[in-house]
Amino acid sequence: MLSDRKTLHVWLLMLPLLCVMIAVIGWPLIDTIRLSFTNTRLVGSEGEFVGLHNFTKMLSSRNFQRAFSTTMQFTLISVTLEIVIGVLVGMLLNQKFYGRTILRGMLILPWALPTVVNATLWRLIYNPEYGAFNAALLKLGIIDQYQSWLGQPQTAMMALILADLWKNFPLVALIALAALQSVPNDIRAAAISDGANAFRRFRYVILPYLVGPLMVAVVLRTIEAFKVFDIIWIMTRGGPANSTRTLSILVYQEAFAFQRAGSGASLALIITLAITVLAVIYIRIMRSWAGGTN
Amino acid sequence: MRSKITAVSLAATALTFMVSGAALAETQLNALFMAQAAYSEDDIRAMTTEFEKANPDVKINLEFVPYEGLHDKTVLSQGAGGGYDVVLYDVIWPAEYAQNSVLVDVSDKITDEMKSGILPGAWTTVSYDGKYYGMPWILDTKYLFYNKEMLKKAGIEKAPTTWAELKADAQKIKDAGIVEYPIAWSWAQAEAAICDYTTLVSAYGGDFIKDGKPAFAEGGALDALDYMVDSYKSGLTNPNSKEFLEEDVRNVFQNGDAAFALNWTYMYNLANDPKESKVGGNVGVVAAPGVEGISEESAVNGSMGLGITSTSEHPDEAWDYIVYMTSQKVQNDYARLSLPIWASSYTDPAVTEGQEELIAAAEKGLAAMYPRPLTPHYQEMSLALQQGIQEALLDMSSPKDALEAAAENSGLE
């Protein structure tokens, strides 16, 4: 009886949030699904039902396939680098040294910066005429003349990944730092007195504490990276020669620039599906890991 | 005492109603402009303030976005039920806007005085299918700017009149070691690249569309891309051009790092201003060159118009504002960054004084303005072409293959 009342209470308290979620997420999602089976245009008359045409057209188009591989490339490289660098920085900031608190505070700055500001800053840094990146590399003797980093397909993607990395590794570092602080000191001390070297201490003592929180970071960052739009839109607009056009940019162009709301919606759903698959894989891995340690 | 309080509160209530009544009588208009090239944001704010002074019951909220956001912002706000009363739009959008009822047809509001006074080329900016969808406001094309001092140093006496001559002059300047990359263009993956390309297409007598089908993979339109690729590969063009927009071109040119640049009207007075520019006083301007036996000069129609959105609740006030902004007086007063649409302004000393060279270039350039194709699929075609141009520049495919691929992706077939 009491538990019934408790359930009712919980639902009552959740009700306002549920209403808002249905209004701002549920309805647009259902409408997107409906749109994806029509040839509706963004402005003008309502379209007709076209079945799976939008989906087959999108999946078989070269633009989609290219954007998909670009998105995967961006996601894989940037998330891997963010995790590696984030963990290393987290470990560094877990050491005791003078000025540690200030450094920990400063770490959050790039992450707290709006992406638009970050992207604009990096555009200036990469500027082929007066950018700081060129100046630094030239002074160091790595390049012999200023380069157009965002103007070459080979370097544009790496330049974007570096800008994204700079903004997002702090999140991973903070999560890693919090996890590292939960490693009991006596286990560390025991490992040292048992003669375990640095790598083995990391692998068998520290890593088990890190894996869970890091998985959360990986899931969050993968989903975010897969949806990437703003940083690329500002820095290259998908260029040069569409070499940095990701799926989100393709959706934007399809739905808003070309005004094909129907096929834009189908593309958005394909992305949602891909992200869901990724999320499910991660959750499975996390569960199996949790089961393994238990 | 009590009655005094009552009286005071009654008066206060009455006053509140009066004030809110006055506020209700005031019409609020939302207008969307761009913060890039042509009239500066400061100019547009100043013009608008003058209009508000003359029309105290109308208040105008101005919003500025980069050119790249102008089309999408307009269409999106329309899709979401409106928001803007007056929008600035590019010459390439009326077909699409008309088909999707984004703008109001104002054909019956255009007076005879407007029809006879405004340059015929300007009207192409706002008309589609025999109807007018607003008033032309910015009359613009790409001009060839040159650094007089650099040309003199290289022993070149006059600005080039053909693209072949431009190439030869640029080679001389490069060989003399005056500047490493003599020519700067805006070839970033954006509409800016299409404007430069169209200028060359007009010089080579090419076509974008023939009989409703893309025709840019052959003839003059192919020659135009060949010229761009040749200029890029021969080191005469600044290789960073492929990530430049107009403002980057202006920066390079006014920093003294280019001898030639293709850009809009607004660059003339800014690059000639010693406070803004290292090459102030040395900037020359002519109509973009032609091709021997085909054209005397070349030009792209880069004009823009002001229109009323179909969702506006105050179309009359919006029209008053547009008429004011496009009036000859306002345009003459602010003719430093954008030239007027009115024919007689070009002989008015108030407009021509101090910028005689620009006016002379405009007389030729504006007469040669070549349109980008009027098609509801413009955005898609443009994006496909931008990709094609960049692929050819980056040597990812030959100009012919790149343009053929663009034709396939253009949404026109």
From TrEMBL, chain A:
Membrane-crossing segments per the record: 12-30, 72-93, 105-125, 165-183, 204-223, 265-285
Source superkingdom: Bacteria
InterPro entries on file: MetI-like, MetI-like_sf
Record Pfam families: BPD_transp_1
Membrane topology: Multi-pass membrane protein
Domain (ABC transmembrane type-1) ranges: 68-282
Compartment(s): Cell membrane
UniProt-recorded name of the protein: Carbohydrate ABC transporter membrane protein 1, CUT1 family (TC 3.A.1.1.-)
UniProtKB/TrEMBL annotation, chain B:
Organism per entry: Cohaesibacter marisflavi
Subcellular location: Periplasm
GO (cellular component) term, any one: periplasmic space
Family in the record: Belongs to the bacterial solute-binding protein 1 family.
Superkingdom of this protein's organism: Bacteria
Signal sequence interval, chain numbering: 1-25
Protein name: Carbohydrate ABC transporter substrate-binding protein, CUT1 family (TC 3.A.1.1.-)
Coiled coil (UniProt feature): none
Keywords, comma-separated and alphabetical: Periplasm, Signal, Transport
